[in-house]
Amino acid sequence: MASTSAARRPATSAPGDGSRTILVTDSQPIEENNGPNTGSSNGILRLRGGPRSRPRVMWDADVIDNEGCGKKKSKICCIYHKPKRFDESSSESSGDESDTSCGSNDSRKHAHKRPDNGGDANPGPNAYEKGGSKGKRKDSSFNPPTNAHAALASQSTNPNSRLLLLSISNADKVPKQGDASSVQRLEMMVALADRLGKDVGVGAVNEPTFVAKSTILRECLDAELTFLMGWDTITRFFAPRYYPSPQAMLAKLRIFFNEQQSSLICARRGSHPDSEEDEFLHSEYVREFYDAGKIKIVDLDQRVRDISSTDVRNGTIETAERDCPSQVVEIIKREKLYFWN
């Protein structure tokens, strides 16, 4: 059995990145006939690591508690909530909240059941305590997060909270070589959440369809949800190929919009003419929900309207510096994502 002990290193050989040097010795009995070169030291093992202050997304065993719902096997795998100062309120916003902007006129407050924890009303650091709230959910692959994601998540509907939601499984896409891992994407999303400010959470869900995502989130958050998306995503949202049949799709959409009171906010792209947009919004499966105010179309700033994560991945570091928040660019550089693969 081997034992380890720390060895003193010369000042000139000690790197400044948190590296350590371990002297490995052998505690087993040594045969008497060993040669003269045999000693108690078998070698020096140098362990080199990055800076100890490097921020990382940590996956702890107790993170998956789904807000105290006791559903350890639920498909939500992580929720991060940006810490607040003691004087901040989760309902603070820069303007008045509008029911219409969230696609719902229902102002009912939901009672969020919490487990009996001895009277402690304060949630843990991973809790997302938004019972009875309205929240925006920016759903995307975040590969990587861009300034367009930031602009869409900053739309002026002023909900109580926002959740950047990573979909681990995608109905259309499979991971490619060079793509950021789920943990790396979550780390970039946390950086984006920090930039967006208070009342922004980060989550991940293992469901490819929005109806399933809405169902799972409502089980844990008990809130009216507004999903934010781009034009390509909303056209897929209403595509019958993702459902068993057109009739089954319509039934699920009525659950999503009517029973669950979820809604959509979609950002226009400059390349789509008004006639194409109008045709889509008044098509067979969309018209019912658009006329009911469940779908809202918004314009992003022209500077970010056509930014694409795909263009960032296929571009250069200059593309990332132009199209992504600086905090995200730092992670791309540090992890050598996209351009270095």
CATH topology of one domain: Rossmann fold
Strand content: 15-25%
* Low-pLDDT residue spans: 1-36, 38-52, 59-133
CATH architecture of one domain: 3-Layer(aba) Sandwich
CATH C-level name of one domain: Alpha Beta
Indicate the overall shape: globular
- Count of DSSP H/I helices: 10
Number of strand segments: 10
Structural class: alpha/beta
- Strand order in the sheet with the most strands: 4-7-6-5-8-9-10
Major beta sheet summary: 7 strands, mixed
Summarize the helix and strand pattern as letters.
EEEEEHEHEHEHHEHHEHHH
The assembly state of the depicted protein chains is single chain
Calculate the terminal CA-CA distance, rounded to whole Å.
41 Å
Give the averaged pLDDT, no decimals.
Answer: 69
The rounded Rg comes to: 25 Å
CATH fourth-tier homologous superfamily of one domain = HUPs
Helix content: 25-40%
Protein name: Cytidyltransferase-like domain-containing protein
Organism: Rhizoctonia solani
Pfam families: CTP_transf_like (PF01467), PPI_Ypi1 (PF07491)
InterPro entries: Cyt_trans-like, PPI_Ypi1, Rossmann-like_a/b/a_fold
Structural overview:
The protein has 341 residues and is α/β, with parallel strands linked by helices. The chain has a domain at 66-83 and 132-335: 3-Layer(aba) Sandwich (Rossmann fold). It has ten helices and ten strands. The chain has helices spanning 147-153, 182-196, 210-221, 231-237, 246-259, 274-281, 287-291, 309-314, 317-323, 326-335, and strands at residues 2-6, 20-26, 41-47, 76-81, 134-140, 161-167, 200-205, 224-230, 263-267, 295-298. The strands form two sheets. The protein has a seven-stranded mixed β-sheet, sandwiched between helices. Strands 1-2-3 form a three-stranded antiparallel β-sheet, with no helix packed on it. β6 (161-167), α2 and β7 form a beta-alpha-beta unit. Residues 1-36, 38-52 and 59-133 have low confidence and may be disordered.
